[in-house]
Amino acid sequence: LKMFWLWLYLPLHLLMASCLCHSIKAPTTSSQQSFKSNLFNFYHSLILADGKETTIHLLKDIPKRYYFVLEEGRALAPFSITVTPCDVPIEWSILVYKPPPGKAAPGHHDTQEVSKSHKASSMVSTIFNYKGNSVETYMGMSSHSALYLLEFLSTERDTHITVYLTTDTTSGHLYPELPGDPRIDVIGIGHTTVTLAWKHSPSVLQHSEGIQYCLLVNEKHNYKSLCAAETAIRSSGMKLPPTVALSLSPYLLEPQQVMILSNSELSIINKVSSGEVRQVCMGTKNTYTVPSLSPSTQYYFDVFIVNLLTNASAAYTGTFARTLEEPEPKVTELKDGKVVHVVLDGKKQKFYSLQYQARHKKIHFTFQLCQGQIRVHITRNGKTVASENLSGLRYFSLKGKLLDTYSVQLRSTEESNSSVKVLASPHFHKPLFPLLPESLKIKSFSKLRTCRSVTIAWLGTQEESKYCVYRKRIEEDQIWRELQSADRCSGPESRHKSEKVLCKYFYDLNLQRAVTTETIKGLEAGTLYLFDVYLFGPSGIPVRYHSKVVRTRKKC
Asked: What is the pTM of this model?
């Protein structure tokens, strides 16, 4: 026995050259010639670690080989090998070598005698081979007198795989267990949502800590492993914004990637060339409603059970579903000179349609964006004449024929509420909205700040108009909400009377000098204030400048 182990760790190419040159059968036709031609280079094979997941990189058409043996003294022992392709299909096989019974150690064999012997063919046999991209596990019984060789080959392109070998099948599993029925059920479909359910993994029921479900949503196809899904996402070249980072595990994320925590759920949303790819980890819940999907779009859903301690995962059988078509939006009639205020719920109603029949050849559309982000699309008799994202106050002057039919479609481009005021009129010389300056920004002068006062400035126009200034004391944690949720169409009537500072009229025919300043006094030291300016036109409809937050000095 000692001679056998001494022989086993001699340079392995001598062993294989003397005993195997006429007996090895390659795992597949495509790799047979390559395997035989590299027979004498067998000593380049690596030892496969026991009880550890190994990542192996494969070059196209170049086989890679690993081997393993059992500990001395174990007659028969179970073992398992799990191979996970992380990209394209691969070919892999397991060969076993057993010395002829009753023979001396192979180092004492006569090479010519063995090479001619018909018994040599029984010394090496292929016990398993596979071609594909599914996760595959082989389980068998090993003898301590056997040497196992694993060969891997990629014929499509360079790729990588993971391999897990274990000879200890009694002390638990590296990979989380799948239920007897690993299918994902689609239990609800809406215009923008899909609800999924799946049976619990035994691993979750036994060890809830460190185990959780992760869902992958994409518009391309299902993935057979989390490794394959992550490879596809990385190869698409997407990058995420530097938002709040909560690392699920190094196995799941690239260094530049992040996950967002919302309602106790970890999620990633990536925009890639083939559509949106979404990863959501929801703990141990086995139902989930995927929100904010596009109507009439087919999505593919994959659920993975992930062991956060080992980074190992197992894939449920993926499914797919098509969201329902968006219902026809309600059409509202636009009338000359009448302002229509449209409010869009980003989650329930994303579209709104308006229709206008021209009684004049020249028509003017005015849009005042109040909240959120909205895209406008205007058609005349079915043909597009304008399409863009709205910002502030926007005018469109269009020329056509009498009785032309104009359709205006408004679409919210974000999940929060959006609103806009719309006006159609043939009389541009009598606008309801005031003439706007080049910029609606409010400027503050840092050098003129004191503990009790702040000086601000804003641009005016060539038309005499009324401007009203308002102030509001706020806290640090209110800044973002005040700036983002401000309704730019609301007038001073929504403000408390105590917030009003002053109203004034001014204009200048020279636009270079159409600027005014105001010093607001009576403030408290070291305090944050929100300043607003409202511009009123001839019709009395206000336009709100962009709010400005300024802190007074602490010490003077």
From this structure: 0.50
